[in-house]
Design a protein that fits this description.
The protein is mostly helical. It is built from 4 helices and no strands.
């Protein structure tokens, strides 16, 4: 699983809204990925603060925004590179 794939299902995964196969794949990715693992922890911190009706840590919110910007930038670059080219699927 790539960071892009994990990013697309991260919120649903953390909210318990994914199937068992996705849970396993995301859990393995989060355990191994130095980028996505901390972002998942950040999302949990923010979610827990909201559940407590407390103000989320501003640093955690900014880290989450940065992660989202990185995913969008990667996706945009991927789409731009694919214009007019045949792409080989990544296994």
């Amino acid at each position: 699983m790539t960071c892009m794939q994990a990013g697309r299902v991260l919120q649903a995964y953390l909210d318990g809204e994914t199937d068992d196969a996705t849970v396993c794949r995301v859990a393995v990715h989060l355990a191994d990925c130095r980028r996505c693992g901390p972002e998942a922890r950040t999302y949990r911190e923010i979610k827990n603060a909201l559940v407590r009706r407390a103000e989320p840590d501003p640093d955690a919110v900014e880290r989450l925004r940065g992660f989202a910007r990185g995913l969008l930038q990667h996706e945009t670059q991927h789409e731009t590179q694919g214009e007019g080219e045949e792409q080989t699927p990544v296994a």
